[in-house]
Design goal:
With 247 residues, this protein is of the alpha+beta class. It has two domains: 121 residues, Beta Barrel (Lipocalin), CATH 2.40.128; 99 residues, no CATH class. The protein contains five helices and 16 strands. The chain has an eight-stranded antiparallel β-barrel with strand order 1-2-3-4-5-6-7-8. Helix 2 runs antiparallel to helix 3 and helix 2 runs parallel beside helix 4. The protein starts with a helix and ends with a strand.
């Protein structure tokens, strides 16, 4: 009888242990999909990023207790410390700790004094493990915001089909084979209320301002109103291209 009771208690104990949720590995790359989804509506790019930011991507390595994030112009690394099986703390030297938790398939960055709560999803982009921090977000953003084919309605190469590739290459836009979107930092400060992008041919390039309105993309020459010893302050000059997205 005693033996049967002992076995019964052991079964209850083991059953209780088995019911505890197993810790989940949060290692990998997590991107701010909400910012990408809002940008994909075809409006102002930086407004969409700011409304859902500021952070754009987390890269987490639980094995080495490291967690890094970028907001588009800063790259910050901290020490990852588990608080329990669903909450982690990221300690960054000189800053208050950031808390991360899991909610289903989403990684939640808790609200703090200077940042709102943010939600991240595992990156659907499959890049090399040593890809620079932020690259996964950029690839996904470029695909959503500028993906597909665009026709040159006016400007050099009128009638051409232009394709913006997620790796930063561009085809169909005369005299340009690479581009980069400005998401934050100095390039954002220099362009004021306008979005900006960098257009380049091999090693030579220049900043341009653009306005995205649904299926239309206007790209302007960037003129500078700053003095030679000041940070550039761009304003739109001549409309160089009007592109229309092909549906």
């Amino acid at each position: 009888m005693r033996k049967a009771l002992a076995l019964s208690l052991l079964a209850v104990f083991l059953g209780g242990c088995a019911s505890e949720p197993a810790p989940r590995d949060i290692s990998g790359v997590w991107i701010n999909q909400a910012a990408i989804d809002e940008a994909a509506n075809g409006g102002n790019l930086r407004e969409a990023l700011l409304a859902n930011g500021p952070n754009l991507e987390w890269k987490i390595d639980t094995k080495n207790a490291k967690a890094s994030y970028t907001n588009g112009f800063e790259w910050v690394e901290g020490k990852l410390l588990p608080e329990n099986n669903r909450v982690w703390q990221v300690d960054v030297y000189g800053s208050s700790a950031t808390h991360l938790s899991l909610n289903g398939d989403q990684l939640i960055q808790a609200a703090a004094d200077s940042d709102p709560q943010q939600t991240f999803t595992r990156s659907p982009v499959h890049l090399a493990s040593d890809a620079p921090l932020g690259t996964n977000f950029e690839h996904a953003l470029k695909s959503a915001y500028l993906g597909g084919q665009w026709r040159v309605v006016s400007g050099t190469g009128q009638g051409n089909t232009v394709t913006f590739l997620p790796d930063g290459k561009i085809t169909g836009l005369p005299n340009h084979n690479a581009y980069a979107l400005c998401m934050a930092g100095d390039c954002a400060s220099m362009s004021g209320e306008y979005d900006s992008l960098w257009l380049q041919q091999d090693e030579v390039g220049a900043a341009h301002l653009f306005v995205r309105n649904g299926s239309q993309l206007e790209i302007f020459q960037a003129l500078d109103s700053a003095k030679p010893d000041e940070m550039p302050q761009f304003y739109p000059g001549k409309l160089e291209w009007l592109l229309e997205k092909q549906l």
